[in-house]
Design brief:
single chain; 798 residues; alpha+beta; Aldehyde Oxidoreductase, domain 3; Aldehyde Oxidoreductase, domain 4; seven-stranded mixed beta sheet; six-stranded mixed beta sheet; 19 helices; 25% strand; Ald_Oxase/xanthine_DH-like; AldOxase/xan_DH_MoCoBD1; AldOxase/xan_DH_Mopterin-bd_sf; Molybdopterin-dependent oxidoreductase
């Protein structure tokens, strides 16, 4: 057996195999697709183990309070209860965890900092017994003042959410209740403003959203004979979980073995720890397998949300429409714990100018510690909030100048070679003007589609739908446009790499490739693409995808639109290394029989070794008889650097993605109801490795942006910091009845630095769909609408 482990930096070479069925560029079917739509797919909540216990978390009922006492005696006395744990029962010196700052306690100690914070754990032989036992734990709180906004967080006498901070960001912030602050200064915005013939200012409010994945947090922890634990869990980042779990269990990482179980959606909400540590603690304490499954109510408290934001913008333009300068201040509410807030701040600041050429900028973005629910990663990651604001500004400024709104954007659109506010050059195609042109050129949907032949109305096509609120009276059409920019991959100097183990062997007379990574398949279709890459590079039809676990090197997070780029790049790289080993075997076995083994460029196609001219030299099944080739290799994209803490300058991102939308809406101006008729989009994807999956990702991201525009918001009481609507009854997400036609036009302009020229594309459509819908509603109503989501009372003034 030939086995090696290597590290490679940079983009793998261009694709060499072009004729293998089921390879890249084809819309191959997803292996998990049929199982999911028929209800046969096993999600993490479906796991079962003989003699397992059920875990339950007791959470705080107040947002900020000292814990005076905890009495667990009644819970422990209940029949069927095997364990009750509090902070005092934690086994290791390390009792906190966190993605960037280890500020989150496994269980609250001394005080609670947000509504729903975990305080105690129960393990019992039935889920209802566990729930009832948790309810019998008595906690006495002494409530403290709550920090809920910037004014209360930064007041001179403000209560500190975290005292004694010693993290890497504290020396750069002006107040301990600021998690992180990132200024960006380029040019001289004050001087440039003097050249502006028109200046517009705006203040915008962006609400808090939930990722609303349909599969709740769940997992199964099984104690092992070696004193360790095997954890089966739905997550986005196995190795990051491992690095946070092992220290608080007091175990070396090799004794915490993690395997990905079926994931029912993620969108950033599974990047942080939820029930993982709790299940392991209970399993190790009881010596029995422990399963934890959140219900929907608990899920709203069990993971981070998207940061709500307050944004202040100023833009200027000359009378011929050229942007002169931009100033902005973005305040993100990070909630009680840091999560990914520092990275979200970096994204919000560096992408706050949008996909436009603006030489003179003055930018500040910051995230606050408050007693509101913790916020972290969600699809778009800081760029969503900024896009909502700067696109509203573009419409206002275009109107001031007297230009068409799309043409104003196209005039100022960045292109390849443009310098961003951070000083970084965009070094791959940036077709901003072209994607705007495409969405504008698309024919508009017909007017008054609700009218039927007999003069009546099909209410399904009207605002309010089947609630039958209108038959067309008071309904006005509006059209709006928006475009956005999103970075791809981890940024600011993070060592962003992935690992892939690829094996090639003969099974039952046929060459087979096995691909093993730790990539979390959360619905994005990564396992499909990995098989396509292996077929393309190794010339085989049979590809096995090994379950994702921590027995192979890290694949990083399934987030930041990075997995096809980075783990796909790692799979491609490992396949190329395996291919070279296979060809070495071929040269050793058959090299004396044909000169092409030594002189020609050799490919693996259709189960054979062939020359670049198509001549077959050997059958792979015969060549690999008795041989197994396996290589595990790391692969990295080009390095990035941290932004300067004072000026924000630096090459902080590896790649950018661009999407534009045109929204067509119909608004019942009397009742304040909105129906989105169409959300047309155009986006550059570099290379569509699986075209059907690309379209699906774009349509899914677009639909989430629609939800942000007119439906989705977690309501937090400003006086108590308690969540008011932790259910799908009161937190509304788009259904099929709310989702409009979404025509997709994608471009394939290759990024020369990326594998196959691809461009990470999962997040970009979430950015521009929201401001496009808002622009269309403004166009229909004439209202300014500087807050998202838009509610009926915002349109009717009631």
């Amino acid at each position: 057996m030939a086995g090696t482990k290597t590290t490679t930096t940079g983009a793998p070479t261009d694709v060499t195999q072009k004729h293998n069925k089921g390879g890249i560029g084809e819309s191959t079917l997803r292996p998990d697709g049929t199982l999911k739509v028929t209800g046969e797919f096993a999600y993490s909540s479906d796991m079962w183990h003989e003699d397992m216990l059920w875990g339950q978390t007791l959470r705080s009922t107040v947002a900020h309070a000292e814990i005076v006492s905890i009495d667990t005696s009644e819970a422990l006395a209940m029949a069927g209860v095997h364990a009750v744990l509090t902070y005092d029962d934690l086994p290791a010196e390390m009792k906190n965890y966190g993605l960037e700052i280890q500020d989150t306690p496994v269980l609250a100690h001394g005080k609670v900092r947000h509504h729903g914070e975990p305080v105690a754990l129960v393990a019992a032989d039935h889920p209802e017994t566990a729930r009832r036992a948790a309810a019998k734990i008595h906690i006495e709180y002494k409530e403290l003042p709550v920090i809920t906004d910037e004014a209360s967080a930064l007041a001179e006498d403000a209560v500190l959410v975290h005292e004694g901070r010693d993290d890497e960001y504290i020396e750069w912030v002006s107040h301990p209740n600021i998690v992180h602050n990132q200024p960006i200064i380029r040019g001289n915005a004050e001087e440039a403003a003097k050249k502006a013939d028109f200046v517009v200012k705006g203040e915008y409010t962006f609400g808090m959203q939930d990722q609303a994945f349909l599969g709740p947090e769940s997992g199964l922890a099984v104690p092992a004979e070696d004193g360790g634990v095997d954890l089966y869990v739905a997550t986005q980042w196995l190795h990051s979980d491992l690095e946070q779990i092992a220290p608080v269990l007091g175990l070396p990482e090799e004794k915490v073995r993690m395997t990905l179980s079926g994931v029912g959606g993620a969108f950033g909400g599974r990047e942080d720890i939820s029930m993982q540590i709790h299940a392991c603690l209970l399993a190790l304490r009881t010596g029995k397998p422990v399963k934890i499954v959140y219900n929907r109510f608990e899920s709203f408290f069990g993971h981070v949300h998207r940061h709500p934001a307050k944004l202040q913008y100023e833009h200027g333009a000359t009378k011929d429409g050229k942007l002169t300068h931009m100033k902005c201040r973005i305040v993100l509410d990070g909630g009680a714990y840091a999560s990914a807030s520092p990275a979200v701040v970096g994204n919000a600041s560096s992408l706050s100018a949008g996909p436009y050429v603006i030489d003179d900028v003055e930018i500040e973005a910051l995230a606050l510690y408050t007693n509101n629910p913790p916020c972290g990663a969600m699809r778009g990651f800081g760029a969503v909030q900024a896009c909502f604001a700067y696109e509203a500004q573009m419409d206002k400024l275009a109107d001031k100048v007297g230009m068409d709104r799309v043409e104003f954007r196209r005039l100022n659109a960045m292109e390849q070679g443009t310098l961003l506010p951070t000083g970084q050059s965009v070094d791959s195609p940036a077709p901003v003007a072209e994607i705007l042109r495409r969405v504008k050129a698309r024919p508009l949907p017909p007017e008054r589609q609700w009218e039927v032949a007999d003069g009546d109305a099909d209410v399904r096509e009207l605002p309010g739908g089947l609630s039958n609120t209108t038959h067309g009276e008071g309904v006005v059409r509006g059209v709006g446009y928006a475009v956005g920019i999103k970075n791809v991959g981890f940024s600011e100097g993070f060592d962003d790499y992935s690992t892939a183990k690829v094996r090639m062997e003969v099974i039952n007379g046929e060459p087979v490739a096995t691909v093993h990574t730790a990539m979390a398949e959360v619905g994005q279709g990564g396992i499909t693409v990995h098989a396509q890459i292996a077929r393309t590079e190794l010339g085989v039809q049979q590809v096995t995808i090994h379950p994702a676990d921590t027995q192979v090197g890290s694949a990083g997070s399934t987030s930041a639109s990075r997995q096809t780029y980075v783990t796909g790049g790692a799979v491609k790289n490992s396949c190329e290394l395996v291919r070279e080993k296979v060809l070495e075997i071929g040269r050793r076995k058959y090299g004396s029989y044909h000169p092409a083994w030594a002189t020609a460029e050799l490919l693996l196609e259709g189960g054979k070794v062939v020359t670049d001219g198509g001549e077959a030299l050997a059958d792979l099944a015969e060549l690999l008889e008795g041989e197994t080739v396996e290589i595990e290799a790391e692969w990295r994209h080009r390095p990035t650097v941290a932004f300067d803490k004072r000026t924000g300058q630096g090459n902080g991102h590896v790649q950018y993605s661009f999407a534009a939308h045109r929204a067509v809406v119909e608004v019942d101006t009397e009742l304040g109801l909105v129906k989105v008729i169409e959300l047309a989009t155009a986006q550059d994807v570099g290379k569509a490795l699986n075209p059907l999956s690309v379209v699906g990702q774009i349509q899914g991201g677009t639909t989430q942006g629609l939800g942000v525009a007119v439906m989705e918001e977690i309501i937090v009481d400003p006086k108590t910091a308690k969540v008011r609507n932790p259910s799908f009854t009161d937190y509304l997400i788009p259904t099929i009845l709310d989702t409009p036609t979404i025509p997709v036009d994608y471009l394939e302009l290759a990024d020369p630095h990326a594998p196959y020229g691809l461009r990470g594309m999962g997040e970009a459509p979430t950015l521009s769909s929201t401001p496009a819908v808002l622009a269309a509603i403004r166009n229909a109503t004439g209202l300014e609408l500087n807050k998202t989501p838009v509610r009926p009372e915002h349109l009717t003034g009631t």
